Amino acid sequence: MLELFSTNHFIWLGATAVLVAALFALSLLFRKRMNALLTVGFVILLALELVKMSYNAFYSDEPSAPWQKGFYVQQYILPFHLCTIQTILLLIARCSKPESSARKLLLPVISVCSVLGGIMAVVIPVEGVAFTADTVLKTIMPYRYFTTHAVLIALGLAIAFHPETGWTGKSYFKTIGCLFLLFVASLYLNSMFHTNFMYTAYPPAENLPFLEVTEGDLMSWLLYLVKLVLCTLLLVTLFYVPIWITLGVQKGKKARETNAFKTVPVLQEETPVEAEPVLPEEKEEAEEEYDEEYDEAPITIASILEGEYTEEEKQFIESGVLPESNSLCPVEELSEEEPVEAGEPEFEMPETEEVPTEAVPVESEEEEIQQDVSKQDQEE
Predict the structure, then answer these.
(1) How far apart are alpha carbons 34 and 93 in whole angstroms?
(2) Which of 57, 98, 205, 320 has CA atoms 20 to 30 A from the CA of 125?
(3) What's the rounded Cα separation, in Å, for the pair 72 and 69?
(4) C-beta atoms surrounding 125 within 10 Å
(5) What is the pLDDT of residues 176-198, one digit of tens each?
(6) How far apart are CA 105 and CA 166, in angstroms?
(7) Model confidence pTM above 0.85
(8) What DSSP letter does each residue of 261-295 carry, written as one string?
(9) Of 285, 248, 288, 70, nearest to 167 (Cα)?
(10) How far is CA 170 from CA 100, 108, 109, 167, 173, in A?
C-alpha cells in the first residue's frame, strides 16, 4: 500500500525538498561547465539505476530465468519510464558537441522532463514510503527512489538556469513534440512487454482523482489517455510560463536599447554664419557716435599758452620764429680736450635686411631736350 499523503509521505517530501536544495546549490559549481554537469548527473543516475537492477535481480518475487541459471531483470525495470529514460538522453547530450542541433534540442527536453517527472514521482511514489522492511534491500529501495528523483529535479533546474540551454519561443513546441513521440512509443512498448511505461496502460496508483480507468472498458481507457495528455500539456505550459516572461523582458530590453541607439542625435558640423551687410546710413551713424564718445577736444594755441611758459617761449609758439639769442635751446661750448661720448641708446633698433632695389636709369637733361626737338620736327 502506497499510503499517499500519510505522515511518512510528508516526511519523505520534506527530506526530498532539502536534498533538492542542497544538490542545486552544488550544481552552481558547474555554472560555466555544461559537460561536467551532464557527466556528473549521468554517473549518479546510472549508479542509482544499477542499485535498482541489482535489487530486482537478487531479490524478486518472480522466478529466475527459465534455464535456472543466473538472474535476469524484469521487463518493468527497463529504462523506458519518463524519469529513467533521462539517463539515456543525458548520455546522448553529453556525447554531442555544444553547437550541435542534438544538444540544443535535448537540453530543454531533459530539463522539463526531469523537473516535472521528478515532482510527480515524489507526489505519487510507486516504491512505497516505509522506512523499515523485512529485508535490507527492501529498506534501501524507498531511499533510492526519493534520492533518484531529487537528483532529477535538481539536475533539471540546473540545466534550466544554465546559459548554454538557450531557451527560445520554439522550445515549447519542440518539448511537446518529443513528449508526444515518447507517448506513442510507450504504447508499443507496453503492448510488447505487458508493462506500464509512461503510465499509458493504467494510472500509477488506484483511486486517483480525475485519472481513473475501468478495467476492460475501452472508452474508459481512451478517456484516461485524453486526460493524461491534458494534464501533461497543463504542467508543461506552467513550466514554460516563467521562461516566456523572462524572454519577453529580455526582448523588451533589447528593443529599448535599439530604439535608444537609433534616437541618438548625429553631431553635424556648424555652418559659419555670414555677417549681415551694413548699410551706409548705419555706418555713418556708428561713426558719429564713436566720434562723440571717443574724440578728444581740439588743441589750440590758447590752450597751450595757459601752461607755465616764459615770454620768449610764448612768442616762439605764437610766431614760430626763433629769437636771436637762441635762449630756447642754449648750446654749451664744448672744449676740444674733453670730447663727449655718445651715450648708449635706450633701445636698439632691430636689424632689417636690406632689400636690393634695381637702379632706375635717369636720363640727362641734354637727352631730354634732344627728344623734345625731334618730336617737334616730326610734327612739322
Answers:
(1) 10
(2) 57
(3) 9
(4) 22
(5) 999 999 999 999 999 998 999 99
(6) 10
(7) no
(8) HHTSPPP-PPPPPPPPPPPHHHHHHHHHHHHHHHP
(9) 248
(10) 17, 11, 12, 8, 6
